[in-house]
């Protein structure tokens, strides 16, 4: 006689689920154990937040829903972080949770909480199963719904009496072939609008293709690369759209981002929303007369902010781009000689200026007894990684979160393959990084980026974590050590959020000597104490790795950083944390370069 837990595990296996990200307790532990018995990998985390983040991005990387299993009440509350992250980023995520027995409702039962009411507004649907018969159908529909259409989160709640219940003697599991779902059906664009969009592109003075993470999720790289190649239109990737067309492509306008957005007159927007990441498609960042052709799977997205509903194409990006390519087959963009500075020249000169500035920062050697700058540290890491693994091979998957840590790394580490750069995303969620590392490892173990290529050597996951971002789920280092995930994690340690603060250094020194420091700071400063952005001065984060058998390096100098990077890259058996002391930037203005201000043009981090 099957138990509820067995029926749940079977439904998941029959849907093709190969990995579950979770954290168990009563009653969901039975589900996890049955899943393991069926050959599903269960990755056990230290906090539901991290496992829900991991499952959400696993869906993005593999193109199939990520599955997350948590306990009820507090477990669900923690997992809401990943539900929000999946809905903010449009990642397909199925969250499963246990809850108290149905007979205990309103009595104050163990971890009792009405998760359905709580989650209904934040998911594509949230449902509770109330009979063992309904389990396979509910799981299948939840899996299908989070995946089909615009991806997002769904939720299924299993009361303890359902998980632990026994099916009736005549209960029959559905045949596996009736459970398995095909990939989402793909719609193509309205032919009349495709024609209109093609004509508009042909007439453009300064056309631009923007490649978003929706294009990466749609696996439209072949179609988009062909379109770019054929039409010679410059392209600009969003942070997670990087690599759909290789960053090394000569038409990549990333280093001239501001100039490209400001001057483009016709923009083909492929799987990116006109939200804060793209400055709403509006002035002052965009030309007020720019015509935007939005291509999206979601009709609701068309016409939003500066979008023009009459130019919107609802459809799968790969198919729509092929349709456009057919209509543009005999066209190649050539700037008109009578239009002032041609768009490509404008982009080239802006890129040259920005790249020269970045290079200057990267090549400046660190003076003795001075902390590394972010730029210099990244330059050393990049050189070392390149010498171990040529960027064309696409062996490295980058994860990056933090403020400066993420902003600066984005432009320094180019990508030639899609879905190999994961960052804080649409929600700018800090704390996703370590979960993302674990998910990337799981995704590339099972789903190599190129199914036709041998997965040898396996992908190496390299993360750049701000010291603050790292702290949100630092304990997941133990998870990595436990599963022998040989990730290489750099903690960019400037002793603070955005930047460090000398007060934290003072506090640390006084702690060391157990005296009140009486240095040059004014009494007023000491009264104020630590700032809201301060973190412990030079905390030894690498010891989180060594404490569980991983490798830890504390580095201050260029040589130490180079050696630690090499050792960490070559390590194949356990996690490595490299704690890099970087310039704290005391007194610098607090800002997130991406949001920028009026003066963004003068901000060296703004050119991405
Ligand atoms: P970015 O962060 O790169 O700006 P967004 O997350 O804002 O990207 O936008 C991604 C968009 O891609 C979403 O609006 C989503 O609906 C869309 N999308 C996802 N999958 C597909 C697909 N297969 N075809 C077309 N659009 C898609
Ligand atoms: Mg910091």
TrEMBL record:
Reactions mediated catalytically: an (R)-2-hydroxy-long-chain-fatty acyl-CoA = a long-chain fatty aldehyde + formyl-CoA; a 2-hydroxy-3-methyl fatty acyl-CoA = a 2-methyl-branched fatty aldehyde + formyl-CoA
Known EC number: 4.1.2.63
Residue stretches making up the Thiamine pyrophosphate enzyme N-terminal TPP-binding domain: 3-116
Chain ranges passing through the membrane: none
Assigned GO CC terms: peroxisomal matrix
GO MF annotation list: 2-hydroxyacyl-CoA lyase activity; magnesium ion binding; thiamine pyrophosphate binding
SUPFAM superfamilies in UniProt: DHS-like NAD/FAD-binding domain (SSF52467), Thiamin diphosphate-binding fold (THDP-binding) (SSF52518)
Domain annotation Thiamine pyrophosphate enzyme central: ranges: 196-324
Known cofactor(s): thiamine diphosphate; Mg(2+)
GO BP, sorted A to Z: fatty acid alpha-oxidation
Family: Belongs to the TPP enzyme family.
General function of this protein: Catalyzes a carbon-carbon cleavage reaction; cleaves a 2-hydroxy-3-methylacyl-CoA into formyl-CoA and a 2-methyl-branched fatty aldehyde.
Name of the protein described by the UniProt record: 2-hydroxyacyl-CoA lyase
Organism: Byssochlamys spectabilis (strain No. 5 / NBRC 109023)
